[in-house]
Amino acid sequence: MIRSFTINKYLSKEFLKIIGNMSLGFFCLGFFLNLFEEINFFKDYDVKIIVPMILNVLFVPSILYNMFPFVTLLSGIWFFLKIKKTDEITAMKVSGMSNFSVIIDTVK
Fold first, then answer.
1. Report for 10-14, 89-93, 95-99, 104-108: range of highest mean pLDDT
2. Residue 69, Cα to own-chain centre: how many angstroms?
3. Which of 5, 52, 67, 100 is most buried, by CB atoms within 10 Å?
4. 19-57 in b/e burial notation, b at 16+ Cβ within 10 A?
5. b/e map of 66-77 (b: 16 or more CB within 10 Å)?
6. Total tally of structural domains belonging to the chain
7. CB of 92 within 8 A of CB of 7?
8. pLDDT by residue (tens digit) across 9-59?
9. Is 80 exceeded by the pLDDT of residue 2?
10. First to last CA, the chain
11. Is 70 helix (H, G, I), strand (E, B) or coil?
């Protein structure tokens, strides 16, 4: 099994970028969907828009925490589709890495 620090660093950086982008997307989705729910809850009360927004900012991280396994799953699928589409997986296979070693080296 080939252990290349450069390849591991590149794969880890790409995977973390995809997880970050996916987390940001789910955070924005949760923020806007929950904001409408908070505004709907406070429509009968005399409060400014800042109260639902503050409550929303406090609540959305817990939603993201509960959805993080799903985010990680989708990020992994997106990552492997990306490296397959750009033929990076082929280049790694030619250099002697197997699919299993790509997964193990990315996790480490």
1. 10-14
2. 9
3. 52
4. beebbeebbeebbeebbeebeeeeeeeeeeeeebeeebe
5. ebeeebeebbbe
6. 1
7. yes
8. 888 899 999 999 999 999 999 999 999 998 888 888 888 889 889 999 999
9. no
10. 14
11. helix
